[in-house]
Amino acid sequence: MKRYSAFAIAREALRHHSGWDRAWAAPAPKKRYDVIIVGAGGHGLATAYYLGKNHGITNVAVLEKGWLGGGNTGRNTTIIRSNYLQDSSSAIYEKARSLYETLSQDLNYNVMFSPRGVMMLAQTEHEKRGYLRTAHANALQGVETEFVGPDRVRQLCPIINIDGPRYPVLGALWQPRGGTARHDAVAWGYARACSAMGIDIIQQCEVTGVRSEGGKVTGVETSKGAIDCAKLGMVVAGHSGVLAEMAGFRLPIESVALQALVSEPIKPCMDVVVMANTVHGYMSQSDKGEMVIGGGADGYNNYTQRGSFHHIEETVRALVETFPMISRLKMLRQWGGIVDMTGDRSPILSRTPLDGCFINCGWGTGGFKAIPGSGWGFAELMATGASPLTAEFGLERFREGRFVDESVAAGVAH
Ligand SMILES: Cc1cc2nc3c(=O)[nH]c(=O)nc-3n(C[C@H](O)[C@H](O)[C@H](O)COP(=O)(O)OP(=O)(O)OC[C@H]3O[C@@H](n4cnc5c(N)ncnc54)[C@H](O)[C@@H]3O)c2cc1C
Questions:
Q1: Which domains does the chain have, with CATH numbers?
Q2: Candidate of 365, 378, 393, 406 to mutate for ligand 1, largest count of ligand atoms within 8 Å of Cβ
Q3: In this structure, are residues 360 and 348 in contact, taking their beta carbons and an 8 Å threshold?
Q4: Rounded to whole angstroms, how far apart are CA atoms 63 and 67?
Q5: How far is the CA of 238 from the centre of ligand 1 (A)?
Q6: What is the whole-number distance in angstroms between the Cα of residue 58 and the centre of ligand 1?
Q7: pLDDT 10s per residue in the chain (414 long)?
Q8: Residues with C-beta less than 6 Å from any ligand 1 atom
Q9: Which of 7, 78, 145, 411 can pair with 138 through a Cys bridge, CB separation 3.0 to 4.6 Å?
Q10: Cβ distance 71 to 238 under 8 Å?
């Protein structure tokens, strides 16, 4: 792989950009791999990358039924933060956030990490108490957050209506090194780095069945034929239940649509991310000037990548009362993704009842922020059989009642 650098850009400028390589190869599948990862979203690609980088396992294929990054990874609103309540959650989300800090250098690919700060508004006394508790927990966990009062909120984001017609802003949980990154670039950067290590990324290759013998996984059936493997990682977000069924087990997961929308571009007016969980909406401004808007997930299961109209109305209403100046903005685009929700709003990174088969799912509405940490931990789990980052996120917790309750931190969103 040729390195991207200022020198390379200057060199290519002089020869009419004729010397760039393809960012990643498009190989035909081999008959057998040590590890197959199903799903070339951020989590699948990051898992493959850290299998190669941290564990020297590169006889790996990542199988993707569509195009890489075309699932939720390419559809999310890119908020990155690690202000979760439980120790196990803040450990994996903070690992991810800290990896994001240097991901562009690590992958030699600009993922446009922008630690502009994330603010979660407290708009009821109950919410304020909850965020104060989280700020204290984060202090003990070594995660940098603080609870700030309304004056500081106004200073950080002057366009907020502090008095609010329904819920005045009582303060906010503020994470100064939270922010955003470019979602496609995260997928593309990992894909390019995987390909450079000799890992095969095979697009347009749908897994249609899981093969096993004597309770152990032996391979998969795909739209490009059967492929053998010693270990299988399922990393397919909203389709986790479908893949689990192929492997003969059930998951405590519900698949629901979550949607987002962007406005026409306007001049810079907001340089932080704001989440208003009580009224149910969140917003940031993209580098192009569009206001990037999201809200809650649909309340019923489905596999359409669209989402319902009433959620758009609810989200926009919430944001107009929080930021009255956006009331006359035109919305340009709306889209949806299928997210995988667990009951405790925490992910599953686990062995499964099928020996050699592992699953990484349940990131729900908030897994983009976790991609590097999840890939790091899941690769360690698959390579060595255990990882401190994933220890509390096993499937057995649902049977044993050891929930990692993050319903408040997951909140409206991400
Ligand atoms: C509208 C929206 C807004 C969001 N906002 C945020 C946010 O601001 N911050 C945040 O942290 N998170 C956010 N999320 C959540 C985040 O996008 C996801 O948690 C994360 O992207 C999941 O990544 P993934 O790699 O697990 O899944 P995906 O990116 O969905 O990748 C899974 C891949 O598996 C493939 N696949 C499925 N079935 C098969 C099969 N049978 N064979 C082969 N391939 C298969 C799919 O095609 C897909 O490409 C948001 C999600 C949505 C939908």
A1: 27-109+183-252+344-410 (3.50.50.60), 118-178+255-341 (3.30.9.10)
A2: 365
A3: yes
A4: 10
A5: 7
A6: 24
A7: 889 999 999 999 999 999 999 999 999 999 999 999 999 999 999 999 999 999 999 999 999 999 999 999 999 999 999 999 999 999 999 999 999 999 999 999 999 999 999 999 999 999 999 999 999 999 999 999 999 999 999 999 999 999 988 999 999 999 999 999 999 999 999 999 999 999 999 999 999 999 999 999 999 999 999 999 999 999 999 999 999 999 999 999 999 999 999 999 999 999 999 999 999 899 999 999 999 999 888 889 989 888 888 889 999 999 999 999 999 999 999 999 999 999 999 999 999 999 999 999 999 999 999 999 999 999 999 999 999 999 999 999 999 999 999 987 766 554
A8: 38-44, 63-66, 70-73, 75-79, 206-207, 235-237, 239, 243, 258-260, 294, 337, 339, 363, 365-369, 414
A9: 145
A10: yes
With beta carbons less than 8 A apart as the criterion, state whether 278 and 168 touch. no
CB 217 within 8 A of CB 35: no
Q: Whose CA is nearest to atom 13 of ligand 1?
A: 366
What is the model's pTM?
Answer: 0.97
